[in-house]
Design goal:
- The complex is a heterodimer of chains A (346) and B (461).
- Chain A is of the alpha/beta class and 346 residues long.
- Chain A has 15 helices and eleven strands.
- Chain A folds into two domains: 205 residues, P-loop containing nucleotide triphosphate hydrolases (Rossmann fold), CATH 3.40.50; 111 residues, Orthogonal Bundle (Helicase, Ruva Protein, domain 3), CATH 1.10.8.80.
- Chain A has a five-stranded parallel β-sheet. In chain A, strands 3-4 form a two-stranded antiparallel sheet.
- In chain A, strand 6 and strand 7 form a beta hairpin.
- Chain B has two domains: 176 residues, no CATH class; 238 residues, no CATH class.
- In chain B, strand 2 and strand 3 form a beta hairpin.
- In chain B, helix 2 packs antiparallel against helix 3.
- Classes of the chains: A alpha/beta (346), B mainly alpha (461).
Chain lengths: 346, 461
C-alpha cells in the first residue's frame, strides 16, 4: 500500500480533513449533523457504528456518501432471514484453471471492502449476524481453516429498523458490544424535510468530491487514525472514564467482585440489568481523542468524554423489564450516571 | 544558518520548565490562601465565639448562660475542626493546581495532562501540547487563576472583631457608669419580721438595722433562722443530688460569668439585724427604743474599736465584756455560708434565746446602771430626735405597747456603708454647772456650729 509515503498529519490537518468530509456528506445528507459527526468520530476512532433510524431517514445514503467522500471501497449487504454466513464472508468455489484443472478458490464476500453497510442487520439470523464478528473485531475472515485479512481501513455500519420488529433477531449483546457507537437518525424537521424534497426531486444530483486522492485515501485515513491514538490522556481522565463505566453497573450484578465505587444511583440499580463492558471505556477514550483533535488539542478533556458518552454507552446498557414498564430511556440513565460521576469528581 | 536560530528557540524541556514554574506560582498562591483561610477562620471563630460567650454572660442568667456556653464551645470546636479540615483539603499539589487552573480558565485540561505526563513525553503530539500551552501562557496567569492575594475569610475575622468590640463595650461601659452593681443585685428584699421593732443602727458603727422585739418574736426568728440553716447545710437527704448539681452548676456559671464580664460577685443585701429584747429594755429606756440600741451600739463600737485600735468612748470599755460581746460572737458564728449567699436570703442574726426564754441581748447592757449608764449620757446614742438631742429623757407614751411591722429592706448605695468612716462624736466642753440636773440639756452654745450640723445630720439619718 501507499501508507509509507503519507506524511504524519498534524492536529490541524486532522480537523481540516474531518470538516471537509463532513461538508461533502452534507451535500447529500440534509440535517443529521450530530449523527454525521458521531459517525465520523467513530470512523476515525477505528470503530464500527450501529445506526438506528426509521425507514427513509437516509441511513443507506449516509454510508454510501461517506464511501464516496473518502474514496474508499464500499459494499452493501441487505440482511434477510435467509442470508447465510457465506454470503457475507465469501466461500470456496470450484474454478477451472487455464489448463482445465478444477480447484477450489476462495471467492471473497462483500465483507472485503473498506466500508461495509449491513442494512437491517437484525433481520438476519444470529448465525449470520455473528459472521461479521471476526471481521469487525480482528479485520480477518476465516473460511475453511484459511484466514483472509481485510485491508484497513475497515468500517462497518449496520442499520437497525426500530419498527417492523416482527421476524427480526435482536443483536446479541456480544455483537452489540463490538460497535463503538450507536447513532440515532431521527426524523428530519420541517426545514430539513423541505430541503430533502427539494434536493432529491430536482434534475441535478449533488456531486460528492473525494477528500483524498483515490490512490492514497486509505493511507491518509490510516494516518489520521494513528494520529488519533497519539492524543494524550491524563491518568485522571482515564480514571474518570473508568468511573463512568463502573457507575453503569448495577450493584446487584453477580459478575461484580469488587463493588467499591459502584453507582449509588437508584435508577441504575433499579433499571439496568447489565452495565457497560470495558469496551465502553475504550469507546469513551477513543471518541474523546477524536473530539480533542477536532478542537485543535493534543490532549483529552473531561468534556470530550462527556460529549461521546451517549453514543458510546447507549447500546451497552441492558435495561430490564422495569425500565420498559416505567418508560425509562437509556439516554436518561446515561445522563444520570454522568451527573453522579461529575458530582463525585467535584 | 539554522543552528543559531534553533539555539534561540527554547527546547521542550525549557518550555515544560516555564509552564511548571507558572503552575508552581499558582500553587503557591492557592496554598497561601488556604493557609490564610485556616488562620482567619480559626481566629474569627475564636474571637467571635469569645465575644458571643461574653454577650451570653451579659444577657442570660447563670443556667441559660451555662447551656449556651456549652453549645457555643461545642460549635466552636466543630467549627475549628472543619475550618482546619477545609484548609487542609484546599491545600493543593501540582496536579491539583493544574486541575484547578484548567477549570478556572477553561483550559480544557491541558495543564492537567502536562503535569501528569511530564517526563514521559511518549506521544508525538507532546511538543505540540507544550508549544500550544506555552503560547497561551497568559491565559493561565497567576492572577487569572486566583486573583485574590488575601483570603476573603478576612471579612469573617473583621466581623468577629466588631463583635468582640461590642462585647467589650458592653462589659466596660456599665462598669464605668456604675451600672453593674445595680444590674447584678436583687432590687428588693422583703423580710416579714412581724412584731419586731426596728431602728437605725449607730452610723458610727456597723451598717444595718437593729431589731428589737418581744421574746416570743425573737425566739420565732431565731428558730426560723436555725431551721433555714439546718435545711441548707445539715440535711443532705432533703435536697436531692440533682438540686445540688444545679446549685453547683449555677455557682460555676455565675463565677464564669463574673470572670467574663469583669463583674464582682453579686452584692448580697447586707442587712444585719441585731435582735434586742424590747420588753427587757422598756423600763430603763428613756425613749422607749433607743436605749437598748445605744447600749448595743456602744458594745459593738468597743469591739470594733478594739479591732481597729481606735480610741472610743470611755464607757464602751466596760461594755466590751458584756452580753453585747456575746451578741457579737453570735454574729460571727452566724456568718452566712456561700449557700446562703447564693440563695439571696436576707441575713438575720438573731441572738440565741436562753432556756428561760430571755434574749441574751437583754441581759447586760439594758440593765439600769446609774453609775455608768445614766439618762442623758446614754441619749447621745443613735435614734434620738435631733430637735431634742439634749432634752429631757421622757418616757414616750405607748412605750409599753408592742407593735409589729414588716421590714422592707432595699439596697442603697448611700448609707452608712458608703460613708466609709464612722462618725466619732465630738468632745463637747461645757461649763460646769453645780446645779446641773442629770436630765437638763447642756447649753446649746457649747457645741461648735460645725459639729452641731454634723450631729444633726447624723441623727437625722
Amino acid at each position: 500500500m501507499s501508507a509509507a509515503v503519507v506524511e504524519m498529519p498534524g492536529v490541524a490537518d486532522f480537523a481540516r480533513a474531518f470538516r471537509r468530509i463532513q461538508n461533502e456528506i452534507h451535500k447529500v445528507i440534509v440535517g443529521h449533523h450530530q449523527a454525521v459527526e458521531e459517525l465520523l468520530i467513530a470512523f476515525f476512532a477505528g470503530g464500527h457504528v450501529l445506526i438506528e433510524g426509521v425507514p427513509g431517514s437516509g441511513k443507506t445514503m449516509l454510508v454510501k456518501t461517506l464511501g464516496q467522500a473518502l474514496g474508499l471501497s464500499f459494499n452493501r449487504i441487505q440482511f434477510t432471514v435467509d442470508l447465510m454466513p457465506a454470503d457475507i464472508t465469501g466461500t470456496r468455489v470450484i474454478v477451472s484453471g487455464e489448463d482445465g484443472r478444477r480447484e477450489f478458490s476462495f471467492s471473497r464476500g462483500p465483507v472485503f471492502c473498506h466500508i461495509l453497510l449491513a442494512d437491517e442487520i437484525n433481520r438476519a439470523t444470529p448465525k449470520t449476524q455473528s459472521a461479521l464478528l471476526e471481521a469487525m473485531a480482528e479485520l480477518q475472515v476465516t473460511v475453511s481453516g484459511t484466514t483472509y485479512r481485510i485491508t484497513p481501513p475497515y468500517f462497518v455500519l449496520a442499520t437497525l429498523n426500530p419498527v417492523e420488529m416482527e421476524g427480526t433477531y435482536p443483536l446479541p449483546e456480544a455483537q452489540l458490544d463490538r460497535f463503538l457507537f450507536k447513532v440515532r437518525l431521527n426524523y428530519p424537521d420541517e426545514t430539513e424535510l423541505t430541503q430533502i424534497i427539494s434536493t432529491t426531486t430536482g434534475p441535478d444530483e449533488a456531486q460528492v468530491e473525494q477528500v483524498f486522492p483515490a490512490t492514497e485515501a486509505a493511507a491518509r485515513v490510516e494516518a489520521l487514525k494513528r494520529l488519533v491514538r497519539e492524543v494524550m490522556v491524563a491518568p485522571e481522565i482515564e480514571r474518570y472514564a473508568a468511573l463512568v463505566i463502573r457507575a453503569t453497573l448495577p450493584e446487584s450484578s453477580k459478575f461484580i467482585a469488587n463493588k467499591q465505587g459502584l453507582a449509588r444511583d437508584d435508577a441504575v440499580n433499579r433499571y439496568v440489568s447489565f452495565g457497560s463492558s470495558p469496551r465502553g471505556g475504550q469507546a469513551l477514550i477513543l471518541g474523546a481523542k477524536v473530539c480533542a483533535l477536532l478542537d485543535g488539542r493534543a490532549n483529552v478533556a473531561y468534556e470530550d468524554l462527556e460529549r461521546v458518552a451517549q453514543p458510546a454507552l447507549v447500546h451497552r446498557l441492558m435495561l430490564n423489564y422495569a425500565a420498559e414498564a416505567d418508560g425509562i430511556d437509556t439516554s436518561h440513565l446515561i445522563e444520570r450516571v454522568l451527573k453522579s460521576v461529575r458530582d463525585r469528581r467535584g | 544558518m539554522p543552528q543559531p536560530l534553533q539555539s534561540l528557540r527554547p527546547s521542550p524541556d525549557e518550555k515544560l520548565t516555564a509552564i511548571l514554574d507558572q503552575i508552581g506560582r499558582i500553587r503557591l498562591r492557592l496554598n497561601a490562601l488556604a493557609l490564610q483561610r485556616a488562620l482567619f477562620t480559626s481566629l474569627a471563630l475564636l474571637i467571635g465565639g469569645g465575644a458571643a460567650l461574653v454577650l451570653a454572660a451579659l444577657a442570660f442568667g447563670p443556667l441559660t448562660f451555662l447551656a449556651s456556653a456549652v453549645l457555643l464551645v461545642t460549635a466552636l470546636v466543630i467549627g475549628l475542626r472543619s475550618s482546619i479540615k477545609d484548609a487542609w483539603r484546599s491545600h493543593v499539589d501540582a496536579a491539583g493546581t493544574a486541575s484547578l487552573a484548567d477549570r478556572r480558565v477553561d483550559f480544557k485540561d491541558r495543564l492537567t495532562t502536562l503535569v501528569a505526563l511530564a517526563g514521559r513525553g511518549e506521544s508525538s503530539l507532546w511538543p505540540y501540547l507544550l508549544e500550544e500551552t506555552l503560547t497561551q501562557q497568559q491565559e493561565f496567569g497567576v492572577s487569572r487563576v486566583e486573583r485574590h492575594r488575601v483570603s476573603r475569610s478576612l471579612y469573617a475575622l473583621l466581623i468577629s472583631g466588631v463583635m468582640a468590640a461590642l462585647a467589650a463595650t458592653l462589659v466596660v461601659a456599665p462598669a464605668k457608669l456604675g451600672l453593674g452593681a445595680k444590674a447584678s443585685a436583687p432590687r428588693e428584699v422583703n423580710v416579714p419580721v412581724e412584731n419586731l421593732q426596728v431602728r437605725p443602727a449607730d452610723p458610727a458603727l456597723d451598717p444595718g438595722v437593729e431589731v428589737s422585739g418581744d421574746p416570743k418574736a425573737m425566739q420565732e426568728l431565731a428558730e426560723r433562722e436555725q431551721e433555714s440553716a439546718d435545711a441548707d447545710s445539715n440535711a443532705p437527704g432533703v435536697r436531692g443530688g440533682a438540686a445540688k448539681l444545679m446549685d453547683k452548676a449555677r455557682e460555676l456559671a455565675s463565677a464564669l460569668q463574673n470572670k467574663l464580664t469583669g463583674r464582682k460577685a453579686p452584692q448580697r443585701p447586707k442587712i444585719k439585724l441585731r435582735l434586742t429584747d424590747e420588753a427587757k429594755n422598756r423600763p430603763n429606756s428613756r425613749n422607749g427604743h433607743n436605749r437598748p440600741g445605744s447600749q448595743t451600739a456602744r458594745e459593738r463600737s468597743a469591739e470594733n474599736g478594739s479591732q481597729r485600735g481606735e480610741q472610743q468612748m470611755p464607757n464602751s470599755s466596760s461594755g466590751a465584756s458584756g452580753p453585747g460581746t456575746e451578741s457579737a460572737q453570735g454574729q460571727r458564728q452566724a456568718q452566712p455560708s456561700p449557700g446562703d449567699m447564693a440563695s439571696n436570703k436576707p441575713i438575720v442574726e438573731p441572738a440565741k434565746p436562753n432556756p428561760q426564754g430571755d434574749n441574751n441581748l437583754s441581759n447586760g447592757p439594758s440593765e439600769p446602771s446609774p453609775g455608768r449608764n445614766g439618762p442623758g449620757v446614754a441619749s447621745h446614742g443613735a435614734g434620738t430626735d435631733p430637735e431634742h438631742l439634749f432634752g429631757r429623757a421622757d418616757n414616750p407614751p405607748g412605750a409599753k405597747d408592742g407593735f409589729s411591722i414588716t421590714l422592707e429592706a432595699r439596697l442603697s448605695e448611700s448609707g452608712p456603708a458608703a460613708g466609709g468612716h464612722g462618725y466619732v462624736p465630738p468632745k463637747v466642753h461645757s461649763t460646769l454647772n453645780s446645779s446641773q440636773q442629770p436630765d437638763e440639756p447642756l447649753a446649746r452654745g457649747a457645741v461648735p456650729a460645725d459639729d452641731r450640723q454634723t450631729i444633726k445630720r447624723v441623727f437625722e439619718r
